[in-house]
Structure formats: structure tokens, C-alpha cells
Amino acid sequence: MFEFRDLFQWDRFITPTIIKTFYWLVIAMWVLFGISGIFSGLAAMAVSPFGGFILLLTSLAGVVVGIIFSRIAAEFILIVFRINEHLGAIRDQGQGH
After folding, report:
1. How far is CA 71 from the centre of its chain?
2. 7 domain-assigned
3. Which residue has the higher pLDDT, 68 or 97?
């Protein structure tokens, strides 16, 4: 975990420690959008059953796709930081020779 003083020092990155929190916040956002879309689809079914059903399916698909892309984005950020760590380890090995 990071401490408050880590915000003002550049010795270590804080993003890898807080990315999981942001990921879960984004997941919660997608779920709320999905619930909103489901209720909108159910309300639209009163006017047009087919259109409401399509909106319902689109909302569900949007939640699934949003969650998948959120995970991909979070993993990409973590991979970039992991590459940085590995390159630092390679650099440190080269300085020993």
C-alpha cells in the first residue's frame, strides 16, 4: 500500500497499487449503466416491445464488453509498469559487470 508522503516523492510509482481500486470503480460504473439500460429497455417495451428488447440486449452486451475492456486497460497499465521494473532489473545487472 502507499502512504501519503509517496504522493510527493518520485522514488516509487503509486499507480500499480491503486489501479485495482480504479478497476472496481469502473466495474461498478458499468453495472450501474447496465441497470439503467435494463430499466430503460423495460420501460421502452411498453411502447415498442421489439425496440425495448433490443435496448435490453444492447445494455447487457454493453456491460459485458465494458467490463472486458476495463480489464484489458487495467492489465495494460500494469504490464507497462512491470516492463519498467524488468528493464530496471536488467539495467542493474549490467552495471555489476
Report:
1. 5
2. no
3. 68
